[in-house]
Design a protein that fits this description.
L-arginine/glycine Amidinotransferase, Chain A, 3-stranded mixed β-sheet, alpha/beta, globular, 23% helix, 7 helices
Length: 289
Amino acid sequence: MAQDYGSQSMVDPLRRVLVKRPDAAFAVDDPARWHYSGKPDLEIAQQEHDALVGILRDAGAEVLFHDETQLHLADAIFVHDPALVTEQGVVILKMGKELRRGEEAVIARRFEELGVPILYELHGEARAEGGDLLWIDQDTLAVGQGFRTNSEGLGQLREALEPLGVGILPVPLPYFGGPEACLHLMSLISIVDHDLAVVYPPLLPVPFWRYLRERGFRLVEVPDEEFETMGPNVLAVAPSRCVMLEGNPITKRRLEEDGCEVSTYEGNEVSLKAEGGPTCLTRPILRSP
């Protein structure tokens, strides 16, 4: 029987994916504390999330739900961040945003229910969030070093993944909006084909930009006016087939001109208010050619 987990790619066809539909915890009464731009409208957020799930299913993915109630964990809908799925099991991460502590144990239980073995759990002072972890290829993981992922997290990821033959590429991140803002590595780049990436150059570290060019990546640039509306946050459901937020027409057109098929969803409540796009809302469990 074929293995039903394993995802050491950003672009191989998405076969199984975990999501969490917004619930009462997401409709926070104190949005400033969560660094949200406003209180999300739960009903509309759920409709927007349902539309995204429909796109994923239309792309051929089996959509699994993470339904356990997580009171006071508003960001738990962003299931990408507490875990990293490999060919040998899942690495349970440790959240850098203090308000998100506790998501890790809950998602670990869900993976156990799904029969995905726990390969490693970050511990001690290690911090790492999934939004900082970008598969360049099957054997190379770029790890953003910012306010959400620290050097101890980098070291433990290296310890966890070295037996799998995975090399770690550290990528220093800029200060940008400071400790409270959410700037992940994947806020600046999404890989949408084996040699194609969407990037926001003004915040991309020069050594990493050079590395991508040396690896032969073509780079689709996001204009300044679409950075705030998450133009760089693009989920590949297959090579050159991707999903992004509505409201980024220049980036969408540039992707299409580079041969991509692009689907969009409206995410004013579920994404824009809470700083989390389609990659954040999905945790790939299985990608396979």
